[in-house]
Design a protein that fits this description.
Chain A is mainly beta. Chain A contains 3 helices and 9 strands; from the N terminus they run E-E-H-H-E-H-E-E-E-E-E-E. Chain A has one domain. Chain A has a 9-stranded antiparallel beta sheet with strand order 1-2-3-4-5-6-7-8-9, covered by helices on one side. Chain B has a 5-stranded antiparallel beta sheet, with no helix packed on it. The chains are: A mainly beta, B mainly beta.
Chain lengths: ~190, ~150
């Protein structure tokens, strides 16, 4: 038995139609990527996501996450076919600072990890099903030696009423546990 | 139905997702009963009560009372009942939910048959949203890393 999430979340007022649905979480919070990806990629019911499965990071950590949507929320018709978790017409974002150990391990060093995600819908509300997303990590692995931990990942996703297609490419160095002391890159295509 | 995998083994893996949600609402102060509503306030907003019918003339011969020509008007001291208040806003919710990952597998490894069904992972989540701009969440994660087959 583990504590996966334990946080308080404050909702921010909208800044016109530019930034909507803003929030900040403090505690054992969502990290920026996996919650976003799992709302798009329904493979989650069979197993963990591509990058988590390869031990690069996991879905929750002790720290602070802030995020929101770019543009007003999509209409109800569009939301029937796309993830309702990040409904910005032009995309969404999330970033935060964390201890680095994840929810499954104690923190083993003094380093803090910075993570950020930016997702855009290139065609906005005219074709909201396609999203381009970037996710980055800058920090150190969770060992006393604190090896470097870097990650740059991109994902193209298309959500449809009848199918979801995602393509992910990731390149980086190290991992969250600090057990990998070399570079890595990987690709995944899933439909 | 079975998928042939390496070394001649045959395995079938199915994943079933089970989830459930229980929802409760925080008690709000109950509206005052109609009797407790101040009569002058409600009287000011309600139409004036209908006048009582004039008293019947006194009869010397006792006879069964005749039915009134129309229903008696409501008493001006008891205002009409107010409509039920609308349900509270959604941010009053306290939610408890669970998500279970059940696994079933059957096949053989190295000539040894196996058949197993197990709970691979389970989440228990509680959410509380006391006001529109704040909410809290706690999720417990019970998991099983590996089961020898």
């Amino acid at each position: 038995m583990r504590l996966k999430y334990a946080y308080g979340q404050i909702m921010a007022p909208d800044l016109g139609d530019v930034l909507t649905g803003g929030y900040a979480e403090l505690g054992m919070v969502h990290t920026p990527w996996l919650d976003f990806e799992e709302h798009i990629n329904r493979y989650r019911m069979q197993g963990t996501m591509f990058m988590e499965r390869n031990g690069l990071f996991n879905s929750a950590d002790l720290g602070l996450t802030a995020g929101g949507n770019l543009g007003p929320s999509l209409g109800d018709d569009a939301l029937k076919n796309v993830s309702k978790a990040n409904p910005g017409s032009f995309g969404s974002f999330a970033f935060g600072v964390y201890n680095g150990g994840g929810y499954a391990a104690h923190e083993a060093n003094e380093n803090k990890v910075v993570e950020g995600r930016l997702s855009v819908r290139p065609l906005g509300p005219f074709f909201p099903y396609a999203q381009l997303s970037y996710f980055g990590i800058y920090g150190k692995g969770n060992t006393p030696a604190a090896p470097a931990w870097r990650l740059h990942a991109g994902m193209l996703s298309v959500e449809h009423e009848y199918f979801v297609v995602t393509g992910t490419y990731a390149v980086g160095y190290g991992n969250q546990k600090g057990s990998q002391l070399s570079g890595s890159d990987g690709r995944e295509f899933l439909g | 139905m079975c998928k042939r995998v390496q070394r001649g083994s045959c395995a079938l893996l199915s994943v079933i997702l089970v989830s459930g949600t229980a929802r409760a609402q925080v008690d709000e102060p109950a509206p005052p009963p109609p009797e407790a509503v101040a009569a002058p306030d409600s009287a000011a907003s309600d139409p004036a009560p209908l006048p009582l019918p004039p008293p019947a003339p006194t009869a010397l011969v006792t006879s069964p009372p005749a039915a009134p020509p129309f229903p008696a008007p409501p008493s001006p001291l008891v205002p009409p009942p107010h409509p039920a208040p609308p349900p509270g806003p959604p941010h009053d919710d306290v939610t408890l939910s669970t998500l279970l990952y059940l696994h079933g597998a059957r096949g053989s490894v190295g000539g040894k048959d196996y058949s197993r069904f197990y709970l691979g992972r389970a989440y228990l989540t509680g959410k509380f949203k006391p006001v529109a701009w704040f909410r809290a969440r706690v999720t417990l994660d019970a998991h099983q890393e590996k089961l020898d087959g």
